Amino acid sequence: MVNNLGKGNSLLNQYISELRDVEIQKDTMRFRKNLSRIGSIFAYEISKKLEYKSREIITPLGTSEMKVLKNYPVVASIIRAGLPVHQGFLDFFDRSENAFISSYRKYYKDGNFDVHVQYVSKPSVQDKDLILVDSMLATGVSMALTYRELISDEKPRHSHLIAVVASVEGVNYIKRNLSSKNVTIWVGAIDDELTAEAYIVPGLGDAGDLAFGVKP
To answer: What is the predicted pLDDT for the residue at 118?
Structure first.
């Protein structure tokens, strides 16, 4: 159910190391580009799990029988921080339908918070492969809540939940609350610690702020 691509040696870890680096983070364009590159790496790996069909391709010199995607997946992202990762997926799944979800944390004086979904724009996901992307998976509450909003009363063929950096607690929360043979979690790195304010340690900071500027 959980695929941690960071366990192997690949350029993925190079890009994640740059995302974490406090000096390289000062270059917001590079930060966004690295998130997008990581999205493309995830897209390639997930493409191996999709359905394919045979198609006869006409070349200038003859014909070639090729395996091509049977259907493109629906790509969804949690805004803001998920948008650069989303773009990386679209560089591969360029014919995909898209969905966008806005969620936020409402903090209380005692330090606790609730997660609220503010906006959802989506096509039907019935019997389709669904990919939900975000940059971080901290507590797992936002991912679970937005996923439920996306599927509503529909049933995707298979769902892939993606986070560039996750916490152990977040991954375990998703496994407990979205237990299904039709849901796969994909991560680039899993960090052990989660602070009382629900920040991943060592993590990389606030991905949305680093990609698009500090919000008021």
So the answer is: 80
C-alpha span between 16 and 121 (Å, rounded)? 29
Residue 149 burial by Cβ neighbours in a 10 Å radius (0-12, 13-18, 19+): middle
Within 10 A of 213 (CB to CB), how many other CB atoms are there? 9
Show Cβ contacts of residue 171 under 8 Å, excluding neighbours closer than 6 positions. Answer: 2, 137, 140, 185, 187, 190
Domain range spanning residue 126? 2-49+72-191
Torsion sign across C-alpha atoms 52, 72, 151, 41? positive
Of 110, 24, 116, 43, the C-alpha closest to 78 is 116
Q: What is the pTM of this model?
A: 0.92
Q: What is the CATH number of the domain that holds 98?
A: 3.40.50.2020
Which H helix or E strand runs over 66?
A: strand 62-69
CB 126 within 8 A of CB 103: no
pLDDT tens digits for 178-205?
Answer: 877 899 999 999 999 999 888 999 999 9
Measure the CA–CA gap between 102 and 92, rounded to whole angstroms: 24
Counting the structural domains of the chain, the total is 1
